[in-house]
Amino acid sequence: MKRLVLAWAVTAAAATGAAVAVLGLLGTGVTGPSSRVLSGAEVRAALSTATARAATPMPRTSARAQDRLMRTEAGTVIASCSGGLVTLRSWSPAQGYSVDGVQPGPAREAKVEFEPEDGEEVELKIFCTPDGPATR
After folding, report:
1. Do residue 48 and residue 83 come from a single domain?
2. Residue at which a domain ends, from 14, 37, 54
3. What pTM was computed for the model?
4. Do residues 110 and 104 make contact, with C-beta atoms less than 8 angstroms apart?
5. 1 found inside a domain
6. What is the pLDDT of residues 17-50, one digit of tens each?
7. Beta-sheet pairing, 109-116 with 66-71
């Protein structure tokens, strides 16, 4: 009986050691070194840098595609026009909606369908105008 208890204790200790080693590897080997918490000043500095970059307008040239952000109650779409064809660059549903279907182009018309949890879906059809992307 003592051998059985001793064997169980050795097996339990080995299993615990193996589990701790695996968890240690998962924490650093797979996901990289452990992260650290940023201070309030570091967070403010990072946010101010990101805000300044986002607020800086991008220069437009006649050869560059025209990008446009379009917002609806169902979601947000970024589209661009080039050569009379529209391309959806990104699309994101609003809270309570999901994306039901996308035809991103490039084409004469692109489409994204936002489906609510309850109710009618919202379909955005986007096309190019001389001023850039627009919706129907």
Report:
1. no
2. 54
3. 0.51
4. yes
5. no
6. 666 665 555 555 444 555 577 787 777 777 776 6
7. unpaired
